[in-house]
Amino acid sequence: MSGPSVTTIRMPGLSLPDPGASRETYTRAERVSVATLSLVAALALRLVSGERSRHKVVLLDEAWFLLASTQGRTLLNRLVRLGRSMNATVLLATQRLADLGDLSELVGTYFLFGQDSAAEAARGLELIGLDPADAALRNRLTEYRQGMCLMRDLDGRVGELQVDLVFSDLLAALDTSPPSGEEER
């Protein structure tokens, strides 16, 4: 085995153009961001496509940022489509299910954590093959906290799942839930 076990790429401050915007209207910051994303995409694809015997995991947190641009969607589409053939698992984390769009058809396993609204809960239930009109299930999904979720597996089976992290410090570091009573920004 050669190379690092973990490669982390952070891209703070990128300013991607709106989907459908013509290149002529890009600001300088948007042109630089698109070029940066293209380089990161090339690196990610190179890392994923190497050494098929070694399993790779690509975690894209705040995937909405990539899903909001044509360039980002192209990267995600390629990674998701090539993932299995390259022995890679692609994990997409986003707070809004609508962000996935047509990529949702390529996702095999879903973890649907607590939703902020009945409308988002209904979208999530429909996405995983459950009845979005089931008010009790929608309400239950909006009450999930502390690692509780619905999981749909590769065979389409859905069940409740409690994710328990062994280390409380890790849970605190990964927690993105607003404190009780805090308004969403």
Describe this structure in words.
The structure is a single chain. This protein has 185 residues and is an alpha+beta fold. It is 36% helix and 13% strand. The chain is built from 6 helices and 5 strands. The longest helix is centred in the first third of the chain and has 22 residues, at 28-49. The termini are far apart.
Topology:
Blueprint: H1 28-49, E1 56-60, H2 64-67, H3 70-83, E2 88-92, E3 110-113, H4 118-127, H5 135-143, E4 148-152, E5 158-162, H6 168-174
Parallel strand pairs: 1-2
Antiparallel strand pairs: 3-4, 4-5
Helix pairs in contact: 1-3, 4-5
Query: Roughly what is the average pLDDT, rounded to an integer?
Result: 80
Give the topology string: H per helix, E per strand.
Answer: HEHHEEHHEEH
Shape estimate: globular
Number of strands: 5
Sheet having the most strands: 3 strands, antiparallel
Low-confidence stretches: none
Helix content: 25-40%
How far is it from the N-terminal to the C-terminal residue, by CA?
45 Å
Order of strands across the biggest sheet?
3-4-5
Structural class: alpha+beta
| Rg from alpha-carbon coordinates | 18 Å
The percentage of residues in β strands lies in 5-15%
Total number of helices: 6
In short:
36% of the residues lie in helices and 13% in strands. The protein is an alpha+beta fold and 185 residues long.
